[in-house]
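User: Here's a chain of 510 residues. Predict its fold as tokens.
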Amino acid sequence: MRKSIGMLCAAALVLPGMGSVSHASQNNGSPSYRFGSGEGFCRTPQPLPDLGEEVAPDQERSGRVKRSAGVAYAGAIAEEAGDAVVVTGSRVADSSPVSARAFRSGDRSKPSAEPARSLPRPIPPRPGPPVKPQPEPQSGLLTAGEHDDLLNHELYADYVRKSGVGQKVRNLPRVDASRLLTVEVRDKKGRAVPFADVELRCSDGNTLNLKTVADGRAVFFPEHDRLSRNVSVRIKGGEWRRLIISDEAGAQTIKITARDAAAAVKKLDLALVVDVTGSMSDELRYLQAELESIVGDLRDRHRGLDIRVGFTFYRDEGDAFVTRTYPFDGDIGKARSHIAAQFAQGGGDYPEAMQDALIRAAGQDWRDDAVKTLLLVADAPPHNQDIPLTWQAAEHLRQSRVHIVPVGASGVADTAEYMMRAMAAVTQSRYTFLTEDSGIGNPKAPPAIDCYLVTRLDQLLRRVIDSQISGRRIEPEKAEIIRTVGKYDAGRCILPADFTKQQQDTKNPA
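Assistant: Prediction complete.
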């Protein structure tokens, strides 16, 4: 188990639409939670803001100055590449960077490029250290691992509790998986019922509504969802069933039998949300090849399934564009061309505009009767001040029954991993991450995960998507496994014999 560097901030955490949460100990040592007055139980997220219209591709092509983090790039050469412009040139100090407020208000006007042409010719950069030869981009090269924190909720709760990230970034969400409530819906023949409407009513009359995913389950988090001790649960049109939320750590399950027979999954909406800033340049071409292959292979693997693919590519405020969204479309060839047309540029600092990308994705035309999967391909978190809005977007995607499948690239560090794992857990999904085994791209920090299998990325993402369509976990074939980390058993990490004692010692230090 990877050592963590501290405890999550013990102060009250406040997120949009969320009251302050204070922690207290009951006589049995289990944590209980008191919420800010006036908030009530059964918390739901606040509405998402309207980001306005995106910058059209022809507007992006019209400029020749790239602004990012207070720096302008004087365009010595500009080459058109599909919908975009590749600009190379020198860095020039800029005293009037485009403000975030201007971008949010819809004022995305670009300064004239004429003054830049009168600048001296750019000086070629000094040669750096030799670059390790990289293979020609093609699918099947990148390697990755994955982890399901809901299958390992004890370990995830331990990770959240011990993580030092919360001490550095106070806006981070806290998804406590030490207590879970799973509503499992099956028909009279015992088959999982996908997309069933589950309604949970708290003691003050407030309600939460989630739909089951393909495995017939909807998962609630008593602390995060702010559930009262006494709740009632039903599926739409059914009778209410009362239960008491346990104070003890562990997973509660309530099983409900639906009157109607389970219907087969017939549709898939797949959204790709991809960071295309400069920091992704070391791996983007390889990721493009992998994603093109995965998307192109969908119809062959799922004949008869109605498949649509949509995109949101994103950079950061001050770049040529913040987000570029393509609506869902059933033309797989067109989807592959959208992927191939992207290139890495911009950014300027480590965090990126993930919050705007997820808001755009949440606003896509998702179908109610489709499996909904969102691949979030990124190597950086949002800016600290944008973390609450990012999480708000993730919660709206959860309410729409969208699985968020993060794909952590080489730059992922503690904050990005924390955010991505929280998004995956709350949307009943898995966290995936690139590994060093391929030798491609920049060095990758090992994840704070106790066990996982390393396979090819394309194989892994196919298994994840297929699992979300079928409602059953699909494990890799033995021949697909490149490396095993820790004690792995069908998605679960085998806990150390003294794990429970370690938790008690942590909660009740001498």
